[in-house]
Amino acid sequence: MNTGSDRETNASAAGKSAAGKSAAGKSAAEQSTADATAGESTEEAPHVSKAPAFIRARRTLHLSWQVGVFVVGLAVIGAGIAMLVLPGPGWVAIFAGLAIWATEFAWAHLVLRWTKRKVTEAAQKALDPKVRRRNLVLTGAGLAIAGALIGFYLWKYGLVLPWNLEDQ
């Protein structure tokens, strides 16, 4: 009889403990705990490692794979940070490194998904006609102020660099 409870009855618990060891070598209680944990993790974080199955099957190989993915992602992100001040597509490289990490790590997958959502929102907001008009007005005002300051400097001092001025 179904009473609506999620708890197992004594008969079903006894049947599971009588099942003994599962194919993986775990007891029935350990297997049900692992199944419950796996069910929770798929609901909260549906991320699964992109490593080949034979690597995921061996713990040391999978750990080595994850360390390798972390190092490669870190190198790409480091190059991206360097490209923020050097010539090159810095932000693209940083997001590529994050995507590399997201193949193995759930936290990176969540960060990448959040970043994609924020970039999409910013792009939609930038395409709003009122925001575009405001940005154009602010850019024009900034260029006018910069032009006025440069014009004043050239009128006052000519084409002399500031560190070569003799009378101050």
Residue windows where pLDDT falls under 50 for at least 5 positions: 1-45
> Structural class per helix/strand content?
mainly alpha
- The number of helical segments is 7
Helical amount among residues, as a percent range?
over 70%
**Broad shape:** elongated
The quaternary state of the protein chains shown equals single chain
Number of strands: 0
Could you tell me the mean pLDDT? 76
From the alpha carbons, calculate the radius of gyration and give it in angstroms. 30 Å
- Classify the beta-strand content into a percent band: under 5%
The succession of helices and strands, N to C, reads HHHHHHH
The major pleated sheet works out as: none
Distance separating the two termini: 97 Å
What is the structure about, briefly put?
Helix content is 71%, strand content 0%. It is mostly helical and 168 residues long.
